[in-house]
Amino acid sequence: MxxxxxxxxxxxxxxxxxxxxPSPDGKSPETLVSALYxxxxxxxxxxxxxxxxxxxxxxxxxxxxxxxxxxxxxxxxPMTVDEYIEQNRKFLETQGFFESEVAKTTESFGGISHxxxxxxxxxxxxxxxxxxxxxxxxxxxxxxxxxxxxxxWQAEGPNLPLPKKYGGAS
Length: 170
Description:
Elements: H1 8-15, H2 29-40, E1 42-43, H3 50-56, E2 57-68, E3 74-76, H4 81-95, E4 96-109, E5 112-122, E6 131-141, E7 146-155
Parallel strand pairs: 2-7
Antiparallel strand pairs: 1-4, 2-3, 4-5, 5-6, 6-7
Helix pairs in contact: 2-3
């Protein structure tokens, strides 16, 4: 049996997003992840560049936080980029929020890449972290640039410390 696949660029064109102009943010998986942290970070009273945030994500992308309920069971809620912005805009722009990458593991093959990015979150630069966890970021390349296809994250907790191989102490 002979298998064939349409090039990603051809498939992407059929979905209407391959013609997007090249963006410095989409130059590589590293620049895309860096832009993700940059666009949500800033002091209280500073508006975020939500158009830039939207430009990082492929059409149909989802952002999915994973949390633990008090009884230990898991819960998650997939959101679109606009739902994420609507849900978090007030907090990020009023309170202030800085998130930075402290460790990273990247696996790539052709036009796909997966980044396990360990983060620390702070309300002000230089403060003690208020949260740490892992962003699992799936990226795709359309022949022109990289896009975030999905972003899933989970914070560490008392019963879920970050593993040493991902920047944790345990």
